[in-house]
Amino acid sequence: MNFPLFRILLCAALLALQCTLPTSARAEPKVLGSGESVDLGAVFWTDGCSSTLITIVGVDLLEGPPGVKLSVRGEDVVPGKQDCPKVPGGMVVASVKEVRAPVTATLKYRVRYKTANGSRQSEHSVELSLQP
Q1: Does residue 1 form part of some domain?
Q2: Which domain holds residue 79?
């Protein structure tokens, strides 16, 4: 098969697949404006439905648009994709003081935990759209 033709067919197939994905499979970016905060997601550490979390040590910004600050708001959360009651954990919150120009980027962060089984960490990413 002709290599350029193969590349065109492959790109067309991938585009068709992307267009057929349900809306829920394509995450919309979290939108954040000057002086605003937005919840990024729940964080927790469980073994089954039992929390092993002692404390959330911190959250580290690994990659993302300039001016974004991350924090964790302590609260009970429902463990994702599990049919469990709420457990101790928190919500990762992104905030920005001033947005001078619109930008959309992937925000990557690491959450560090102290658990009954020792130190643990998890890495997360989310699309973030900053709007003035």
Answers
A1: no
A2: 27-131
Q: How far is CA 31 from CA 40, 79, 103, 118, 132, in A?
A: 10, 24, 10, 35, 10
Q: Cα–chain-centroid distance for residue 40?
A: 6
pLDDT digits (tens, 9 = 90+) for 51-75: 999 999 999 999 999 899 999 999 9
Q: pLDDT band for position 27 (50/70/90)?
A: confident
pLDDT of residue 83: 84
Q: Examine residue 14 and state whether it is found in any structural domain, yes or no.
A: no
Strands 30-33, 118-131: pairing is parallel
Would you say the C-alpha torsion 128, 23, 111, 122 has a positive or negative sign?
Answer: negative
Q: Identify whether 6 is part of a domain.
A: no
Domain count, the chain: 1
Q: Is residue 22 part of a domain?
A: no
